[in-house]
Design brief:
The structure is a single chain. The chain is mainly alpha-helical. It has one domain. About 70% of the residues lie in helices and about 0% in strands. It contains 11 helices and no strands. α1 packs across α2. The longest helix has about 30 residues.
Length: about 250
């Protein structure tokens, strides 16, 4: 299948022979978003972008990555207007909450444990709202769709996938769910058979590397070959939860 512009990142990820091509894609997407939000394009100075970041805010993980990325002025400008929108919204939530509580009878039943206080619910909503997460998820899902588009049409792509290192457990679950919706019955059965084999073989491979890494701490093995175990710890962590534990901080170029 001739490579298209939208398939290039996917093929790059597969050709990287990483523990998980979707971790590779996710990392690139996240870095691109950090560059977009805080990099030399100065998108944070654009009113339409600032309106979106003001509304969505950023999760704890991406706040940390934005701080590590650098650009103190850019970060501060983003926070300034986000604070202004947040404080205005917060006053409305507080006012509404006080009105509700003032109408309550002293003899009303205690609120069910499953029902959150409105202010608490608002805080929780803000806590999980993130401009980078939202954009990352939307773009990532398009790559999952692209994966199956290429998978159905390109035999060489299928060969690379099933001769590769599999996926991390996190992205494998996402992929299997997408396969059950995207592929017909016979295609799904073929995909699942090969994907299950791939995962079993590669989890066993990583487990073997971790085991040998541990054995290398035995003084009797100090002169033995490391084999492929030197980076087994970070690969083992990635295989279970995704991501790159050994990655350096991503900074402004």
């Amino acid at each position: 299948m001739k490579e298209k512009l939208y398939t290039i990142p996917l093929n790059d990820a597969v050709n990287a022979k990483d523990e998980c091509p979707f971790c590779f894609i996710e990392r690139k997407l996240e870095q691109d978003l950090l560059d977009f939000v805080l990099g030399s394009s100065s998108s944070y100075m654009e009113s339409d972008i600032r309106e979106k970041t003001d509304a969505a805010g950023f999760c704890r993980e991406h706040m940390k990555k934005m701080f590590d990325y650098g650009n103190t002025l850019g970060n501060s400008l983003i926070l300034k207007t986000h604070y202004e929108k947040l404080m205005k919204e917060m006053k409305e939530v507080f006012r509404s909450n006080q009105a509700v509580h003032s109408r309550k009878s002293l003899f009303e039943k205690i609120r069910p444990a499953s029902q959150k206080d409105p202010v608490s619910a608002w805080c929780e909503k803000k806590d999980c709202s993130c401009y980078i997460c939202q954009n990352l998820e939307e773009t990532f899902q398009r790559y999952v769709d692209t994966f199956f588009f290429v998978y159905e049409k390109d035999e060489e792509f299928r060969r690379k996938i099933f001769q590769g290192k599999g996926f991390c457990l996190h992205h494998f679950g996402i992929l299997i769910d997408a396969a059950s919706r995207r592929l017909n019955q016979s295609q799904y059965e073929e995909f699942a058979k090969e994907a299950f084999r791939l995962m079993e073989e590669n989890l066993a491979r990583v487990h073997e590397d971790i085991t040998w890494l541990i054995d290398k701490f035995d003084y009797r093995n100090k002169d033995a070959d490391w084999k492929t175990s030197k980076d087994a710890l970070q690969r083992g962590m990635q295989k279970l939860r995704g991501g790159y534990p050994a990655d350096p901080v991503y900074k402004q170029k």
